[in-house]
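Recap from last week: sequence in, structure out.
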Amino acid sequence: MSIGIGGMVGGGIFAVLGLAVSLAQGGTPVSFLIAGGIALITSYSYVKLTLAFPDRGGTVKFINKGFGQSIFSGSVNNLLWTSYIIMIGLYSSAFGSYAPNLFSITGSKIMDAHIYSSAIIILASAINYYSIKVVGQIESYAVIIKLVILIAFVFIGGYGLIGNPNLSQLSMSQWKGPLQLVTAGMVIFVAYEGFELIANAAPDIINPNKNIPKAYYYTVLFVIVLYVVIAFITVGSLPFNEIAKARDYVLAEAAKPMLGRTGFSIITIAALLSTFSAINASLLGGSRVSHEIATDGELPHEFTSQLWNKPLGLFITTIATLILVNSLNLASISIAGSIGFLLVFSVVNYAGVRLSAQIKGTKTLPFSGFILCLLALVILIVQQYASNKTGVLIAVGIILSCFLIEFWYKKSNKKNKG
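Predicted C-alpha cells:
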C-alpha cells in the first residue's frame, strides 16, 4: 500500500488541483470521483495480471503477455516510458510553481519556476546516480510526512469550513455540465497514476493471493477518498477568482483561511517534499522501464548498457524531462500525461480481456475498463482540442512517434538479422 499510495500521492494532487477547479468549478470533487472510478476498475485487471504473472517488469510484462512481443506491444511500452518522462515533467513543474512562494531568485515567478524545475530534476538525477538506497530512504520518509500533512489538512480544513461563505460554491448550480465534469476528471487522471507500481513489487509480496488484491483496492479507494475530500475543502474554502489566481499552488492557498501564512508555508513545504520524492522515484522507475523494454528487444540493445554504473535510460530520461519542462506549461504536460496513461491502461485492460482464462478472471470488468479508458480518452482529446490545442497535438505526436519509431526499429532489426 505504501508503494501504491507513494506513487499516486506524489506530486499529482499538488500539480493538477487548480487545473481541475478551473475546468469543473463546484463539481471538482465529482471529477476526481469519476477519474478514481476508472482507476478502480483498471486496478481489477492489474490484480489478476499481477497474480498470474508476478514480475518486476510489471506493466511491460503484462502488455507483452497480452499481445506478444510485437510492434504494437513495443510501441505501447515505449509510450509507457515516455509517459513516465511526462509525469516527471509534471512533478517538476509543480515544484517550480510552489518553490518561489518561499524564496524568489530573480523576482520573476516564470523565470524562478523554470530555474527551480530544472534544478530539482538535476538534483534528483544526481541522487539516483549516487545511490539507489538513498532514493528508497527519501521515498519512505516522504510518504509518511506528506500523508500526515495532507490528513491534517483534511481535518483542520474540514473544521474550517464551518460557516465559510464559499461553501455555496459546492452547490449543483455551480457545477459545470456533465461533459465538462468528465473532461476535468480526465485532465487530472494523472493524479491517479502510480498504483500500477505495486505490480513491480509482486515477487517480494508475502501471501500474494491475499495481499496483492488488498494492496491495489485499499490503495485506490484510500486515494479516491483523500482526493475527493481535499477537492471539497479547497472549493469550499476559497472563492473561484482566488483559486484561479493561485491555480498552480492552490492547495497551499487553501490552507490560508484556517492557518494563515503558517499553513500556506507548511503545505508549500509538503508540496516540495512530495514532488521531489515523486521525481526521485519516477526517475528510477523510468530508467528501469527503458531497461526492461530493451531487454525484451523492443528498444535497441544499447539501452541495456550502463553510464556511470546506472542504466543509460536514466540519463536519457533526465535530459528529455529537462527539455519538456522548459518547453511546455503545466496544463499541456498534464493533458499529455493523462492521454498517455489512459491509452496504456486501456491496453492493459484489453490484455485482461484476452488473457481472462489464464488469469482466472471475468471479462466484464476488464472490458468495461477498456471501453471507459478509450471513451475518456476521446472525450479528453475532443474537449481539450479547442482550449489547449498545443497539449493535445503534442500528446498525439508523442503517441505516433512511439509507434513509428518502434515500426522502424523492428523492420530495420529484422532486415539486419536477415
